[in-house]
């Protein structure tokens, strides 16, 4: 067991929150019970995840996508009202880490996705080191890399590029990071992997010759929050359970 204030303080320091200019508050977003015995982790604090966490007897829900995003309606109405009401009625703590969780060199989404896909060594560039890059142990055809990603993530990726092209240097950033594609081109990457793709990205990939793999926003961001949850559970002798609420995007 750990007090929520102690857990919050430790995690804020661990995730180096002050380094980031984010679109939402990082850390404890909704306060619940003071004692934490079990953490449930998930990608997004949807109602489905909250209900599953309550059924699993969680004290803390730890996610990548929480609430109170910049430029959203600040009123507590509709979906937001229902979610916050559920958290308060069930005395559930909600903790969220967005950009700090993407970039963390040990527990981050990028480093964890790289490990899952077998890309090494991993280094970082860009603002707040949000873009990762590394090499496959040996060059392979793009179509073989795509099949590998599909097998590991259990999701069919969208691909732009010559499937017979040999690739070795990989750049990536999980989630909605198609805007960082130019950085991958500057790095001299053979292929860039992200969670989503935009209309203009297709033309950029074709005209630069750097292949683009859109592997899924949700599936590319499943791993960081699990790694962080496992670390916190080990450090504070807690129970940890990851609950995957499927999302096709």
Sequence-ordered SSE layout with sheet pairings:
Elements: E1 2-3, H1 4-14, E2 27-30, E3 35-36, E4 38-44, H2 47-55, E5 60-65, H3 78-89, E6 93-96, H4 99-103, H5 109-117, E7 120-125, E8 131-141, H6 142-153, E9 158-160, E10 166-173, H7 181-187, E11 191-194, H8 199-208, E12 211-214, H9 217-220, H10 223-236, E13 239-242
Parallel strand pairs: 4-5, 4-13, 5-6, 10-11, 11-12
Antiparallel strand pairs: 1-3, 2-6, 7-8, 8-10, 9-12
Key terms for this structure?
249 residues, alpha/beta, Udp-n-acetylmuramoylalanyl-d-glutamate--2,6- Diaminopimelate Ligase, Chain: A, domain 1, 2 domains, six-stranded mixed β-sheet, five-stranded mixed β-sheet, elongated
Task: Describe the 3D structure.
The protein is 37% helix and 26% strand. A hairpin with a 5-residue loop joins strand 7 and strand 8. The mean pLDDT is 97. It folds into two domains: 2-98 and 221-241, NIF3 (NGG1p interacting factor 3)-like (Udp-n-acetylmuramoylalanyl-d-glutamate--2,6- Diaminopimelate Ligase, Chain: A, domain 1); 109-219, 3-Layer(aba) Sandwich (Udp-n-acetylmuramoylalanyl-d-glutamate--2,6- Diaminopimelate Ligase, Chain: A, domain 1). The protein is elongated. The longest helix has 14 residues, at 223-236. The chain is of the alpha/beta class and 249 residues long. The two termini are 36 Å apart. It contains ten helices and 13 strands. The protein has helices spanning 4-14, 47-55, 78-89, 99-103, 109-117, 142-153, 181-187, 199-208, 217-220, 223-236; strands spanning 2-3, 27-30, 35-36, 38-44, 60-65, 93-96, 120-125, 131-141, 158-160, 166-173, 191-194, 211-214, 239-242.
């Amino acid at each position: 067991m750990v007090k929520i204030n102690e857990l919050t303080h430790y995690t804020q320091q661990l995730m180096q929150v002050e380094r980031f200019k984010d679109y939402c508050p990082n850390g404890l977003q909704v306060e619940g019970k003071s004692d934490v015995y079990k953490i449930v982790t998930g990608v997004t604090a949807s109602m489905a995840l909250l209900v599953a966490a309550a059924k699993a007897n969680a004290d803390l829900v730890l996610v990548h996508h929480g609430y109170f995003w910049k430029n959203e309606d600040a009123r507590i109405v509709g979906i937001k009202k229902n979610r916050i009401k559920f958290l308060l009625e069930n005395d559930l703590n909600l903790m969220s880490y967005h950009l700090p969780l993407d970039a963390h060199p040990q527990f981050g989404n990028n480093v964890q996705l790289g490990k899952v896909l077998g890309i090494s060594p991993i280094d970082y560039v860009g603002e707040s080191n949000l873009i990762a890059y590394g090499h496959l142990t040996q060059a392979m055809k793009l179509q073989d890399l795509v099949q590998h990603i599909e097998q590991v993530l259990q999701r069919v990726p969208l691909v732009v590029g010559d499937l017979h092209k040999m690739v070795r240097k990989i750049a990536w950033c999980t989630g909605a990071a198609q805007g960082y594609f130019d950085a991958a081109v500057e790095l001299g990457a053979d292929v860039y992997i992200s969670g989503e793709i935009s209309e203009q990205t297709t033309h950029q990939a074709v005209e630069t010759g750097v292949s683009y793999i859109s592997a899924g926003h949700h599936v590319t961001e499943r791993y960081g929050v699990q790694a962080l949850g496992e670390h916190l559970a080990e450090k504070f002798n807690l129970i940890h359970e990851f609950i995957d609420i499927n999302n096709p995007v």
